[in-house]
Amino acid sequence: MSLFYRFASRGAIIPFLKLVSRQRVTGTEHFPADGGFIAVANHLSNIDALTAMRALVDADVPAYSLAKASLFKIPVVGQVLRAGGQIPVERGTASASDALREAERILAGGGVIMIFPEGTLSRDPLAWPMVGKTGAARLAMRTGVPVVPMAQWGGQDIMDTCTDAFHPFPPKPVTVRVGEPLDLTRFGSDTEDRDAVRACTAEIMRAITAELEIIRGEKAPRPFDPHYDIDHGPGAYGERLPDPAPGEEAGK
Fold first, then answer.
1. How far apart are CA 177 and CA 50, in angstroms?
2. Gap between the Cα atoms of 44 and 119, Å rounded
């Protein structure tokens, strides 16, 4: 991790977050002290990458993130991400697998990778985590490293989920909760086993959602599934359909 990245995070990004938010983080004792791990979190706002990073930096955990390529085009933020060796992901292209290989290399060297498993901002009109994409699960299964679930709440009040409208003042409360590491080795290492990958992904999302339930003080509904519910695409919340009948599966 470059010195410039550490300077930018502590000298620019964190002071900015202190100006627009009142962040409270609990559970940082769950970050493993040694060896690589994957940190995963829900995604409600484009400011989430900064609030999650702050939770890690404040705990003196330098992490690399798998971030959508469009974030690297944002002035200042993109420069900081590039300077820190962060990994852009071009979703839906062949280079997406290159990003996972680079993440594997970092984890093998004892580094930390930050991933938002939903792959995009949640489309759920109730603002709960959606059904996750499989990248985090595949990475965990290939490497055998623990996965640390993190839940965030409040960033969407600073930067709107759908419009990116920025509301810096007054400073908004942001809560980040870190859960206990997940040992996902029971799902094996065969990422060609679609059932195992899907089950591992669901376990990761369940753990994130459980931490968010504690923050919000309420029980989450079933995960919003863009392949089952109505997804209006970026910039709009989706619409939930009635829950599937017992024995059926959303998206089938």
1. 15
2. 11
